[in-house]
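Tip: read the tokens left to right.
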């Protein structure tokens, strides 16, 4: 059996390695149009910023290493230009020699990856100071440009993972950075109220942030010296980075009738097989599916690519591995803040038709007396069965641990109540006695069983719709006078039982404190006293004020 793999980054090399581990009989050949193999795309921003000393650290394996370790022939700078699946042959151009050759296969694996999208007007001309980050050669070109030209002003277009990571690293290098994002928030996959916290950190670190804006025109011949945005902003830039997303490289797949899925990537089954016999697709060219909904999704991440590659390599050589879907789990650092998410966001849950509860949990990542810093968890649970649907987490530490625990829980179908019963590691330097994950499960489960929560957004809607709404601020007088929810009356928790007669038990009521705990205690008091409809403001006044600030930005 001869296996030919087109593409040699995360997915392609994983196919080759797993196939060889399973059998010594197969001939395995890999073609890639680039110069480098098995490299870390995700590490490139950090090499540009200097946290990674050399490019070689991102390319730990080369062709000779793979040949020696796995008896796999990898041909770099070889572009596959045509596939004839009826005869199972390929046409390949040796880019260095300028020659064309043919090869044949029994099994073909498409690991052709994805290409960065070049938005208008940058797609009209080429500029020597406009870059995209997709491969190691891009890294070399960018590093050479920065070293030679010593730019002072950078423009980053797009605020996804790479755009935000580049922004952070360029600021660390001392550049003045402007970030332009077409959407009205950074990190569009996140919910706007959580992304707003990221925007505040960007601006606090000197980033000029332009949201809901795009580059309309470029001044300069061969070098982009100035751009003008659709909102009329005129920006001088010494270097420009485009990071507006990627598009799967499906040209070869379409050439042989491989079906393209709803996401625009290659449609595959759980064994990474396409609709064409003996043709597989893995990595950024292939779509995945949601663990939660079962629907196709496209999440081009190196972790998923490695997983897909291993599955395909196993199946091709007689194994029975299957892809189990993804949650879209991701994390990034923005200066000293960490931002992670897994599963569905609120806007995705709405789109998918779920009836769900939302919790904002604001707690220290570990004991405050040992320097624990505040973290915000926004988590969702299905009202129908209590199943955890997703979470977004922001803080200065411990974010990765909480995201990974919740991702694991969602994968195994955990309900809100299950989170509370997890036996998580505790010691003051690492967690609180009631870990933020445990508290998230407890509070969500309470909300699902008689202690409903209300988000700032829903509170504002409800205030506009129901003039009889009672809003009770249970904090100290000092805190109330500093800031409070519009229309709230001040009744401290310690006085609530005695002053409950001042309130109407039949009217819908909202209680709140600074972050949510005392608000929940007040909610219990009123429910026990016979109030019929009582909500606790999720995340308390702190979360409410952040939401109001976002609306007024």
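Filled-in amino acids:
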């Amino acid at each position: 059996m001869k296996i030919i793999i087109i593409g040699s980054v995360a997915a392609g090399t994983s196919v080759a390695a797993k196939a060889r581990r399973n059998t010594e009989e197969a001939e395995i050949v890999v073609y890639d149009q680039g110069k480098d193999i098995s490299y870390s795309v995700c590490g490139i921003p950090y090499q540009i910023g200097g946290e990674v000393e050399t490019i070689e650290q991102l390319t730990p394996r080369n062709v000779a290493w793979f040949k020696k370790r796995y008896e796999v022939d990898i041909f770099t700078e070889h572009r596959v230009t045509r596939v004839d699946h009826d005869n199972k042959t390929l046409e390949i151009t040796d880019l260095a020699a300028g020659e064309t050759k043919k090869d044949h296969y029994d099994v073909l694996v498409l690991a052709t990856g994805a290409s960065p999208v070049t938005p208008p007007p940058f797609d009209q001309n080429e500029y020597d100071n406009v870059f995209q980050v997709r491969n190691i050669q891009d890294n070399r070109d960018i590093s050479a440009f920065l070293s030679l030209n010593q730019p002072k002003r950078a423009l980053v277009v797009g605020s996804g993972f790479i755009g935000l990571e580049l922004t952070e690293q360029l600021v660390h290098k001392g550049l003045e950075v402007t970030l332009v994002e077409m959407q009205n928030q950074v990190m569009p996959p996140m919910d706007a109220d959580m992304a707003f916290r990221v925007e505040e950190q960007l601006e606090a670190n000197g980033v000029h942030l332009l949201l809901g804006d795009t580059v309309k025109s470029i001044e300069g011949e061969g070098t982009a010296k100035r751009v003008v945005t659709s909102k009329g902003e005129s920006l001088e830039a010494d270097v420009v980075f485009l990071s507006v997303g990627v598009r799967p490289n499906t040209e070869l797949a379409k050439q042989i009738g491989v079906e393209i899925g709803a996401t625009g990537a290659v449609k595959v089954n759980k064994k990474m097989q396409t609709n064409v016999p003996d043709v597989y697709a893995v990595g950024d060219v292939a779509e995945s599916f949601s663990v939660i909904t079962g629907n196709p999704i496209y999440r081009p991440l190196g972790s998923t690519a490695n997983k897909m590659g291993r599955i395909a390599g196993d199946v091709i050589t007689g194994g029975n591995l299957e892809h189990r879907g993804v949650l879209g789990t991701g994390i990034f650092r923005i200066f000293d803040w960490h931002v992670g998410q897994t599963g569905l966001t609120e806007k995705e849950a709405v789109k998918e038709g779920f009836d769900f509860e939302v919790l904002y949990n604001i707690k220290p990542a570990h004991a405050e007396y040992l320097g624990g810093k505040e973290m915000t968890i926004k988590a969702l649970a299905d009202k129908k069965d209590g199943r955890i649907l997703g979470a977004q987490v922001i803080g200065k530490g411990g974010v990765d641990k909480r995201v990974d625990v919740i991702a694991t829980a969602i994968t195994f179908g955990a309900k809100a109540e299950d989170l509370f019963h997890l036996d998580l590691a505790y010691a003051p330097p690492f967690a609180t006695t009631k870990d933020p994950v445990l508290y998230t499960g407890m509070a969500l489960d309470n909300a699902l069983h008689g202690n409903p929560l209300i988000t700032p957004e829903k509170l504002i809607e409800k205030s506009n719709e129901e003039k009889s709404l009672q809003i009770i601020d249970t904090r100290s007088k000092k805190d109330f006078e500093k800031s409070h929810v519009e229309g709230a009356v001040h009744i401290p928790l310690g006085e609530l039982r005695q002053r409950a007669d001042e309130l109407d038990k039949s009217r819908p009521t909202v209680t709140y404190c600074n972050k949510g705990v005392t608000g929940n205690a007040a909610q219990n008091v009123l429910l026990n006293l016979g109030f019929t409809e009582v909500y606790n403001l999720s995340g308390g006044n702190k979360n409410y004020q952040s939401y109001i600030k976002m609306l007024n930005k």
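The first strand starts at residue 2 and ends at 6. The radius of gyration is 27 Å.
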